[in-house]
Amino acid sequence: xxxxxxxxxxxxxxxxxxxxxxxxxxxxxxxxxxxxxxxxxxxxxxxxxxxxxxxxxxxxxxxxxxxxxxxxxxxxxxxxxxxxxxxxxxxxxxxxxxxxxxxxxxxxxxxxxxxxxxxxxxxxxxxxxxxxxxxxxxxxxxxxxxxxxxxxxxxxxxxxxxxxxxxxxxxxxxxxxxxxxxxxxxxxxxxxxxxxxxxxxxxxxxxxxxxxxxxxxxxxxxxxxxxxxxxxxxxxxxxxxxxxxxxx
Length: 248
Prior knowledge:
Layout: E1 8-16, H1 20-37, E2 42-47, H2 54-64, E3 68-72, H3 79-89, E4 92-98, H4 109-117, E5 122-126, E6 133-136, H5 140-154, E7 168-172, H6 173-182, H7 190-198, E8 204-208, E9 210-212, H8 223-247
Parallel strand pairs: 1-2, 1-4, 2-3, 5-8, 6-9
Antiparallel strand pairs: 4-7, 5-7
Helix pairs in contact: 1-2, 5-8, 7-8
């Protein structure tokens, strides 16, 4: 019988919505770093129905880089939907998702990999854990919004995690396929759902990283923030309902 193909050591999933301007430099930086550090890898760009030339840029880079794949959702479905599509398409033994702005530099991957090597199933980059190095801070209004959101998140069953929203998380293949196969949140609060699903089943390590705020955030303080709070409330209610039934 033919041998079962071995999974790639690493997949990197990059959700992209209207990232025409910065996607190519991001991909070149990731490819250069991984090419020097890894025996093999793949990069999956998930175009979330962009209205600019994001998909064309991704395809152009992929044409010259066999390790780059492009998944196109066709219409804008949300960051959670884009990350889910990339995670389920990935073939790596470990799978990272990284924001396209590289607010957390790709070299910080080594810290997350060390956490998995030490026994974690999920390693999440943190801007709030002791030892984090914040090079450029957000506007005070966004920081206030973030603190309010984190308070609500802690009430959703994620006590002890200081930063659920940093866009740089590494999963074992088993954890990624299981959790994203169950996830339903398509918007920016998808991280919360994934971590709530993981709590008690997988070991989660929160890892302090270097981070800098990048302008042109895709999160609107108005409509997107309201949707995030709504999604977290829904996750909280679902979590409470499941806990109630499990205790009967």
